[in-house]
């Protein structure tokens, strides 16, 4: 029996990673816990930040954890199925992010993939991610804007990956992932420019 083509295996793991990324935990959790549609509340985003602002801190943290876990799980499953093939894992990292941003289960309208990015690169480049996390926290603490922290962290992450000598495929994935995050934050960038962006507060605002 001929061996399975490595390209076919990568295609399968890529689709699987996309489907894992598309699991809309924010939407499901809010729907089950409150009966509300998170897409009609606040920013309309299904991610943890909007869940936190619209529903509550506990709910936001739970969604954040699940979104990070699905990013990690997608790359981990890819690694298991491909015996740790770096190219397959790099492609899987982007696929899980795309699944979160454009989930087939919600008509391709999803989140901004920051948490999935964290989960995926926690597996692929933990040192670079840890350094970026410190930068993210510092930016948010100083500016009070989660979106600004995400954007700055995303822009700096490929440089940090390069400095920490990650493989070329992981560096390429970090560049693609960072570009996707910045693109998904285009509305936040517009609000930051006009001074209308929501600030982060430990005290949740009741929305709608």
Strand content: under 5%
Low-confidence spans: none
The computed structural class is mainly alpha
Order of SSEs: HHHHHHHHHH
Oligomer: single chain
Number of strands: 0
Q: What is the mean pLDDT?
A: 91
**Helix count, DSSP H or I runs of 4 or more residues:** 10
Total domain count? 1
Fraction in helix: over 70%
Rg (C-alpha, Å): 17 Å
Care to describe what's here?
- The protein has 208 residues and is mostly helical.
- 71% of the residues lie in helices and 0% in strands.
- It has one domain.
- It has helices at residues 6-21, 25-34, 48-54, 57-82, 86-101, 114-124, 126-143, 146-163, 168-184, 186-194.
- Helix 4 (57-82) packs antiparallel against helix 5 and helix 6 (114-124) runs antiparallel to helix 9.
Task: Describe the secondary structure blueprint for this structure.
Elements: H1 6-21, H2 25-34, H3 48-54, H4 57-82, H5 86-101, H6 114-124, H7 126-143, H8 146-163, H9 168-184, H10 186-194
Keywords:
10 helices; mainly alpha; single chain; 208 residues
Short note summarizing the structure:
The protein has 208 residues and is mainly alpha-helical. The chain has helices spanning 6-21, 25-34, 48-54, 57-82, 86-101, 114-124, 126-143, 146-163, 168-184, 186-194. The mean pLDDT is 91.
């Amino acid at each position: 029996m001929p061996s399975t083509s490595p390209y076919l295996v990568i295609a399968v793991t890529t689709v699987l990673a996309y489907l894992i990324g598309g699991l809309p935990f924010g939407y499901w959790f809010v729907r089950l816990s409150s009966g509300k549609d998170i897409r009609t509340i606040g920013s309309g985003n299904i991610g943890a930040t909007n869940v936190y602002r619209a529903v509550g801190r506990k709910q936001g943290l739970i969604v954040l954890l699940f979104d990070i876990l699905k990013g990690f799980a997608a790359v981990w499953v890819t690694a298991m199925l491909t015996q740790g093939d770096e190219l397959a894992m790099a492609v899987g990292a982007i696929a899980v992010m795309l699944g979160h941003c454009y989930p087939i289960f919600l008509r391709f309208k999803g989140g901004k993939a920051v948490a999935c990015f964290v989960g995926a690169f926690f597996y692929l480049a933990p040192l670079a991610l840890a350094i970026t996390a410190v930068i993210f926290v510092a930016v948010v603490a100083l500016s009070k804007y989660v979106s600004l922290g995400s954007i700055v962290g995303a822009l700096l992450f490929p440089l940090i990956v390069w400095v920490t000598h990650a493989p070329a495929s992981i560096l390429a994935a970090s560049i693609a992932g960072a570009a996707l995050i910045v693109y998904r934050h285009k509305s936040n960038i517009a609000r930051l420019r006009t001074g209308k962006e929501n600030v982060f507060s430990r005290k949740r605002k009741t929305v709608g």
